[in-house]
Design goal:
Layout: H1 4-13, E1 17-19, H2 20-24, H3 29-37, E2 42-45, E3 48-50, H4 56-63, E4 67-68, H5 70-76, E5 88-93, E6 110-115, H6 119-124, H7 129-139, H8 142-154, H9 160-168, H10 175-184, H11 192-201, E7 210-217, E8 220-228, E9 233-238, H12 240-243, H13 246-261, E10 265-270, H14 271-276, H15 278-297
Helix pairs in contact: 5-7, 7-8, 7-9, 7-10, 8-10, 8-11, 9-10
């Protein structure tokens, strides 16, 4: 005879969601009823069950026979994102109506979308990795979408050529944004903050930056967040989380001094500036490009 723990293991293996048929194969209908009564397994829809501690997005997807999607799916895949969504995103098969019972208690915090879902997406209740990036690229601001795409490539969820091919087949509203995200996505980006700063730099005329660029200094070989080697411009995405200690301050000051005396112009961008005032960051970058050009011409 099966156990409740065996049913919970089935749920865990499938990402927290399973059907009644899948669970009773390792237990029994009576045992499943008991597990629900004791709160060890939750019933969220007709024949759909989840682990109690499942994320709201997966719970909503299971209840509606859909798939976690967009930025919620990016998080479900384990990718780093610029900021978590303020609501769960769930995609339902086209023509599917919302369930009228057992919806998540925080239904107002769920955004439902409609699209064709693959059999695997319906089974696992989360959109495919490439599809997740394309959805984010279509609907999110460019910087946030680029952060998702960079993170997916950094985690080797698929390769860049696969993303480019998929983006080339996108049609309709947002298709141009999707292709732009795919074109500029790279696994070399270290984190979402750096991706955002790079996204801003892409709109600055004359500036071409490389993420995690190598620079050989008298102190040794260092890696900077972003660099335009032609203009000898370095852009550092400065987060207090990584630069808030005395030892970090000492190391940063040494890097900055060596870069400066070696002929590099360094611009340091804070999280707040990049997120809250990207136009100001773009102005700083444009001004620095013009300054370097004037000095080179003189």
């Amino acid at each position: 005879m099966g156990t409740i723990e065996a049913m919970r293991q089935v749920l865990a293996w499938q990402g927290g969601v399973a059907t009644r048929g899948e669970l009773v194969t390792v237990g029994s209908p009576a045992l499943l009823t008991r597990a629900v009564r004791e709160g060890q397994i939750d019933r969220v829809g007709q024949g759909r069950y989840v682990l109690p501690d499942i994320a709201d997005a997966r719970r909503a997807a299971a209840a509606a026979h859909g798939a976690v999607s967009h930025l919620s799916a990016a998080i479900a895949h384990g990718w780093e994102v610029l900021r978590e969504p303020d609501r769960c995103h769930v995609t339902l098969p086209r023509g599917k109506s919302l369930p009228v019972t057992n919806l998540p208690r925080r239904r107002k915090n769920v955004s439902y979308h409609y699209a064709t879902l693959s059999a695997t997406e319906r089974e696992r209740h989360v959109t495919d990795p490439v599809r997740t990036v394309l959805d984010c690229a279509r609907f999110l601001p460019f910087g946030e979408a680029l952060a998702v795409a960079d993170s997916a490539l950094r985690h080797c969820s698929f390769d860049h050529d696969e993303l480019l091919t998929a983006a080339a087949h996108i049609r309709g509203p947002g298709a141009r944004r999707v292709r732009r995200v795919a074109q500029h996505a790279t696994a070399a980006a270290a984190n979402p903050f750096e991706s955002l700063v790079r996204a801003i730099s892409l709109d600055v005329p004359g500036l071409t930056v490389k993420p995690q660029a190598e620079i050989d200094l008298p102190m040794g070989l260092i890696f900077v967040d972003l660099a335009d080697t032609r203009l000898r411009i370095v852009i550092e995405a400065d987060s207090f989380a990584f630069h808030g200690t005395r030892s970090a301050l000492i190391a940063d000051a040494a890097r900055y001094n060596w870069l400066t005396i070696s002929g590099w112009r360094v611009l340091r961008i804070t999280w707040e500036a990049a997120l809250d005032d990207p136009a100001l960051v773009a102005h700083w970058l444009g001004a620095l490009v013009n300054l370097q050009r004037l000095e080179s011409a003189g």
